[in-house]
Amino acid sequence: MNSSVITFPGSNCDRDMDVALKKFGFKNKMVWHNDNELPKSDLVVLPGGFSYGDYLRCGSMASKSKIMKSVINFAKSGGKVMGICNGFQILVESGLLPGVLLRNKYLEFICKNVFVKVNNKDNSYFKGISKDTLELTIAHNEGNYFCSKDQIKEIKDNNQVALSYCDENGKIDENQNPNGSIQNIAGIFNRDKNILGMMPHPERMIDQALLGEDGSVFFKNLINNIR
Amino acid sequence: MKISVIITLKKDVLDPQGKVIHQTLDGMGFNNINEVRQGKYFEIDIEENDKKKSEDKIEEMCKKLLANLVIEDYKIIGSQ
Fold first, then answer.
1. The domain containing residue A67 runs over which residues?
2. Which is the CATH superfamily of the domain at B2-79?
3. Which of A13, A127, A198, B51 is deepest in the core (most CB within 10 A)?
């Protein structure tokens, strides 16, 4: 299975993502933001980091870069595009996902492990995944998901909430909300579920020697679904 | 022409930075403040002498990049 990870100036999780994808069987290529064409891909990943130093708004500059035209065309024709953290911010700024990611409610950069509930398994990212809650790590300053009342209704009606912050038993309440996101949203899909944006970093949880292994659960399942 | 634009958060969007600035001003003794909202200011020098044409271009820039219309409003506040 072929994957592509886009590197923007300021991306810093691109190599971690490359390692993770390869570990679970993807043939991954790194793609520079200034390229025009995407290599043949079954999955395109926009990695975490601080593209363009988070100038103007996080992800806003990267969303206008050359390669994003191809990524947008790829996504609009049904291709699978996944954005992690800054990648999620780029997806909302490019209009591929609804809403926006604001500064965290209490103005702190948050770096810690959280539990997220998998809300929808009827898609190629989570279909067949063995766990209902995953322990993943978050590391962000702007992860406070926000959208209009009409948008949130549409997102809920179409089952577009992918992940919600919860406790280890899967209970979703305000106490488990690290950053002020509307309804504890940690990740969302587009309407067709081929595009996924999420704040947690599965690529940082792929080895016992790191922070945990629920990222492995995610990637093992992902390659099975894409195969 | 030089065009000045301000970008502000929409009314119902939480502005935690504005809140903290408000609290700090309060702590400094400026205690008659109702609310502080933080925004952005841009000065754009554009190679165009027609005011209408310049402002139309700037408006397009606001819609496409400078503002995120989900959470922000823009306003051209001066052209010279």
1. 2-226
2. Phosphoribosylformylglycinamidine synthase subunit PurS (3.30.1280.10)
3. A198
Residue A107 to residue B14, Cβ atoms within 8 A: no
Q: What is the pLDDT of residues A2-53, one digit of tens each?
A: 999 999 999 999 999 999 999 999 999 999 999 999 999 999 999 999 999 9
Averaged pLDDT, A178-195: 97
Q: Is A58 a catalytic residue?
A: no
Residues 86-105 of A with CB under 8 A from B: 93, 99-100, 102-105
Tokens standing for residue A197: 């944006």
| Count of domains forming chain A | 1
Q: What is the Cα–Cα distance from A116 to A9, expressed in whole angstroms?
A: 29
Q: Is A59 on the interface with B (CB under 8 A)?
A: no
Does residue B16 carry a pLDDT above 90? no
d(CA A180, CA A87): 19
Is this model's pTM higher than 0.80 or not? yes
Inter-chain touch B68–A64, beta carbons under 8 Å: no
Distance (Å, rounded) from C-alpha A77 to C-alpha A57?
A: 27
Handedness of CA A55, A56, A58, A64 (dihedral sign): negative
pLDDT for A227 beyond 80: no
